[in-house]
Design a protein that fits this description.
heterodimer, A: about 60 residues, mainly beta, Ubiquitin-like (UB roll), 5-stranded mixed sheet, two-stranded antiparallel ribbon, about 10% helix, B: about 325 residues, alpha/beta, Rossmann fold, two-stranded antiparallel sheet, 12 helices
Chain lengths: ~60, ~325
């Protein structure tokens, strides 16, 4: 699966739960939303090979 | 995870409210919260509102929701001249104007002042975020009053308020601490009324609403705000929120309660001690307001003016 976050792209070939992925990348669950194949998903969603995953940072400042 | 309302697949878990919701029920939940905030705190007072839009998730969501709730609202956009970022954000704003079929007033700093916001910051000897705030406050006020609107609505959210409150407490900035509120009242016909309908909605909720409502907003962070302290405060508060859900809303609601008690004892308000600019006639803390000082230092021959973008005529 293709995972995009903070301008980076990574590939993962094993299924993984959303919250495990966020933990693996040390990303806060409050700070990121996860969109899989253009659909917002919850943290218990299972990501599968072939999925297009976008981790969207929700924090803006200034 | 299932939706607590209808049992369908949930798209979001809201730990602070101990619930999980599907897309449709989340949209209803969010819109109801905004509607209740507007009603409970009398944010509109039956006036004609205008929304300050930046192309980001908060302001575009607010603009979209208001019109969806039947509150006809136009927009104000300040083009800061920050390269690709400003071009993209203006495009998002125009796209939303077309979707809503509402007008947007555009103030182009490069056209009027002759410099982009970085150049303005250098002239004013301020950091870009501070210069941006000054220009936006002036433009919002002018458009609202000059074009006959009654209230400027901004997309400030729970995280904006919690982080500002956190920063003010960390440094005990008493002068700023008690100025945060859901509304800022109109003063003498020179300072427009302002209100923040997303005050009690978190950034995560607002972004989720924008995503499920297919609101096309600019995802990139402003390139000039990368080292803004507010971003650090937000990260710290989100780490606390992750461990202890509901902390941010308790923090901000607690502040509002304290503010109410304080107001009962003191008569205090923005605009106190504020004079009138001898050039433009709008509020100033001195003979001339910061915007007129900027125009003078910029050697521009232009006058303050706004481009009116009307989707019906585009």
């Amino acid at each position: 699966m293709k995972i995009e976050y903070d301008g980076k792209v990574m590939e993962l070939d094993r299924p993984i739960l959303v919250y495990k992925l966020l933990e693996k990348l040390s990303l806060n669950r409050e700070t990121y939303l996860v969109v899989v194949n253009d659909r917002l998903v919850t943290e218990d969603h299972r990501l599968l090979p072939g999925d297009h995953v976008r981790l969207i940072r929700v924090v803006s400042g200034g | 995870m299932k939706c607590k309302v209808c049992g369908r697949e949930a798209v979001i878990k809201l730990k602070a409210y101990n619930t999980s919701l599907c897309a449709d029920d989340f949209i209803s939940f969010f819109e109801k919260r905004v509607e209740e905030t507007i009603r409970k705190y009398s944010l509109l007072k039956n006036g004609r509102p205008i929304v300050a839009v930046s192309g980001g998730k908060d302001s575009l969501t607010l603009w979209y929701i208001l019109n969806k709730l039947g509150v006809a609202a136009d927009g104000i956009y300040v083009n800061l001249g920050i390269g690709e970022y400003s071009l993209n954000s203006l495009e998002k704003v125009k796209k939303m104007a077309q979707r809503l079929n509402r007008k947007v007033y555009i103030f182009d700093v490069c056209e009027i002042v002759g410099k982009n916001i970085e150049g303005i910051a250098r002239i004013m000897k301020r950091v870009p975020c501070s210069a941006c705030g000054m220009v936006k406050r002036y433009v919002m006020n002018r458009v609202c009053l000059d074009m006959g609107y009654d209230v400027v609505l901004t997309g400030h959210n729970l995280d904006d308020e919690a982080s500002a409150l956190f920063g003010n407490l960390l440094y005990w900035r008493e002068g700023y601490l008690w100025k945060k509120d859901l509304t800022l009242e109109e003063k003498d016909g020179r300072l427009s009324r302002k209100a923040k309908p997303l005050f009690l909605c978190s950034e995560r909720e607002t972004a989720a609403y924008a995503i499920v409502s297919r609101i096309d907003y600019i995802y990139e962070e402003c390139p000039l705000s990368f080292d803004a302290k507010s971003l650090v405060y937000k990260e710290v508060l989100n780490r606390i929120e992750e461990i202890s859900p509901g902390t941010k809303i308790a923090f901000v609601k607690g502040y509002l309660k304290m503010l109410k008690k304080r107001k009962a004892f003191e008569e205090e308000g923005d605009g106190k001690g504020m004079g009138v600019c001898e050039v433009c006639g709008y509020p100033a803390r001195g003979l001339r307001c910061a915007m007129c000082r900027l125009m003078e230092k910029s050697d521009t021959s232009k006058q303050i003016a706004f481009i009116e973008y009307n989707p019906e005529e585009a």
